Amino acid sequence: MAFVIVAAQVAVAVGAATSIYGQVQAGKAQQQEFERQAEEEKIAAEGRELERKQELNRVLAANAVSASMSGITGEGTPASISLESAKQIGASEGMINLSEKLKRAQLRRKGKAANKAGKMGALGSAVGLALSGGLSIGGGGGDGEKTKGTSTGKKTGSSGGGGTSGRSGGN
User: Fold this and answer.
1) Domain boundaries along the sequence of the chain
2) On the chain, which terminus has fewer CB atoms closer than 10 Å, C or N?
3) Which whole number is the average pLDDT over 29-52?
4) What digits encode the pLDDT tens for the residues 73-107?
């Protein structure tokens, strides 16, 4: 009987350990997935930035050709307009870059949170198992009831009532 109890406790412990390990690994896997997404987003953002810069260069070159064909020099008002345009485009690029960096940082934070959630879930499983008595230490499990009251040498009935054995023979 004791072997069965020990085997059951070992089975519970092994099951709990497997569950805990699985939760930790799931958290790590989610973190890796978010890290991969952040890296993909970084590569995509660099590609979009390159496309925007190429488009800007085409527009600036077209403006320069148009201005020179119409006889406008590169001094004075056209130059100040181009400078202001370049400043606005630079500010816009800065905002786009900042937004993309924030998006990648958010993905990384989600990954760290997923990893922590996996660890906390594993800890919760371990604590829940310990509190539910699945990992009983010290055992004994009810043997005390069988020996209760036997110090007088008399056996007690299965109900443990004690005084009923004198009445069973008589009325």
Assistant:
1) 2-133
2) C
3) 91
4) 656 566 677 777 778 887 888 888 888 999 999 99
Length of the chain: 171
141: alpha, beta or left? (left if phi > 0; alpha if psi -120 to 50): left
Measure the N-to-C terminal CA separation of the chain; round to a whole number of Å.
41
Q: Distance between CA atoms of 91 and 96, rounded to whole angstroms? A: 9
Q: What is the reported pTM?
A: 0.54
Residue showing tokens 């805990």: 20
Count CA atoms closer than 13 A to 135's CA, side-chain side. 12
Pairwise CA distance, residues 1 & 107, whole Å: 53
d(CA 1, CA 63): 92
Average model confidence (pLDDT) for the chain? 76
